[in-house]
């Protein structure tokens, strides 16, 4: 993982992904001094994902999409897009869970929990399961935030189920794509 992290970017897309990572770090640091704690916490939760996509050695395009998607998901909460735009929540759950399921596939294959994505059905099933698990964890975090931190977090049964359904669909799409295309760079170091 460290070898992938320290490898210099070799394409315009890789440079863009690194730029998004740098912006995410700067925004989180600035938010420490300018935003309420809950917004800082939400933005901070995007940092592990934007760093992990680089460390896992994802293809530069997938790396960029992962960084942008995760940071847009966090930022949408801070600027209240989920309340302003009907359906935005479902779009973000679909996209964000999809890219995180792809990252999970790479990590699971590198740690030999699953076979590399050579078999066509394995990534479809594993990505979908990983996406549904990630969706469930996220919904538990939302519930915890609503119950113990602020009632400004929107939590209803229908919202939770809809979010998990969208996340599962995004993960399924990621699995189908992973069954047909490599998710990682050819020159990357395995975990």
TrEMBL record:
> Which taxonomic lineage does the organism of this UniProt entry have?
Bacteria, Bacillati, Actinomycetota, Actinomycetes, Micrococcales
Highest taxon above the source species: Bacteria
List residues traversing the bilayer.
Answer: 20-43, 91-110, 122-141, 161-183
Name of protein: Uncharacterized protein
UniProt keywords (A-Z) are:
Membrane, Transmembrane, Transmembrane helix
């Amino acid at each position: 993982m460290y070898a992938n992290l320290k490898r210099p970017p070799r394409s315009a897309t890789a440079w863009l992904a690194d730029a998004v990572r740098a912006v995410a770090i700067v925004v989180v640091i600035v938010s420490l001094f300018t935003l309420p704690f809950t917004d800082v916490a939400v933005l901070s939760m995007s940092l592990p994902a934007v760093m992990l996509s680089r460390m896992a050695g994802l293809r530069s395009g997938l790396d960029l999409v992962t960084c942008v998607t995760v940071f847009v998901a966090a930022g949408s909460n801070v600027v209240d897009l989920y309340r302003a735009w009907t359906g935005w929540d479902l779009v973000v759950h679909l996209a964000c869970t999809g890219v995180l399921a792809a990252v999970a596939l790479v990590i699971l294959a590198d740690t030999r929990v699953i076979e590399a994505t050579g078999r066509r059905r394995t990534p479809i099933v594993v990505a979908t399961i990983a996406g549904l698990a990630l969706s469930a964890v996220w919904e538990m975090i939302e519930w915890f935030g609503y119950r113990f931190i602020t009632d400004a977090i929107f939590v209803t049964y229908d919202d939770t189920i809809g979010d998990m359904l969208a996340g599962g669909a995004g993960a399924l799409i990621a699995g189908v794509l992973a069954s047909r295309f490599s998710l990682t760079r050819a020159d990357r170091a395995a975990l």
